[in-house]
Amino acid sequence: MKLLFTLLFFCYAFNGISQNITTTQLLDNAIEYHNPNGDWHSFNNEFTVVMTTPNSPKRTSKITINLPDEYFSVKATKDTVTTTYTVNKGKCLMQYNGKAIDSITAKEKKMSCDRATLYKNYYTYLYGLPMKLKDPGTNLNDKIEKKTFKGKDYLVLKVTYDEAVGSDMWYFYFNPKTYAMEVYQFFKTDKNGKEKPDTGEYILLSEEAVVNGIKMPKVRAWYYNKDDKYLGTDTLVQE
User: Which InterPro entries match (predicted)?
Assistant: First the structure.
């Protein structure tokens, strides 16, 4: 009887949370958890991410993000090759094995300023979550979903983006007790904006590292949605 009461209480509490909180409040609570001191907009720090993938050498990326000065840099080493992309107040600089290169050499090495901007947006977005969900062009669904994923219960926030920002459909999974972000998932959409269920990936977040006052996921493991195939893991390393 005691066990039954405990289970009923948990279900009631979980239902109550999901029914009484708005999507904006859920996001604000998640931001309060990950960015308790409001440090994201003044973020100025560096960290290292080690990517491991099946049947491939690891890639070590040293990332520098300075939001106030509009500066971003990623120095990535894989095997014997090191590439560096820097975006400084919109100006792109590239290096190959420590030497600055021009546009012709960059093209030969399959490097480009478009790729530099892509890396800047990619790393700033993923390591700036959930704060980045406050950015213009981000559309929060007005309903919070309850989902059980990999045996755990979550409050799930569905997010779409203005056409100029992106076409993927994203889901962010938050711990119903702490509001920590523990999973995110995205799907491609068709020309009508409808979700394509056999596309996209989900990312499991585990452990935490505090960088510049921000609680970031230390480990991110990537999988395909369609078949749960493992793709790789990013591990944040602080030096």
Answer: DUF6503 (IPR045444)
Gap between the Cα atoms of 133 and 222, Å rounded: 20
- Could you give the CA distance from residue 71 to residue 86 in angstroms, rounded to a whole number? 8
CA 203 distance to own-chain centroid: 8
CA–CA separation, 163 vs 114, rounded Å?
A: 19
First to last CA, the chain: 51
Beta-carbon-side half-sphere exposure of residue 115 (alpha carbons within 13 Å): 14
**Which 3 state secondary structure label does DSSP give 185?**
strand
3-state class (DSSP) for residue 34: helix
H-type alpha helices, the chain = 2-20, 23-34, 103-108, 113-127
When pLDDT is cut at 50, 70 and 90, the band that residue 11 belongs to is very low
| Span 89-139, pLDDT tens digits | 999 999 999 999 998 999 999 999 999 999 999 999 999 999 999 999 999
Tokens of 125: 């977005």
Name the token pair of 42. 């003044």
Are the C-beta atoms of 159 and 176 separated by less than 8 Å? no
Token pair listed for 218: 């230390």
Lookup: tokens for 62: 């040293």
Cis ω before 130 (30° cut-off from 0): yes
CA atoms within 13 A on the CB side of 237: 12
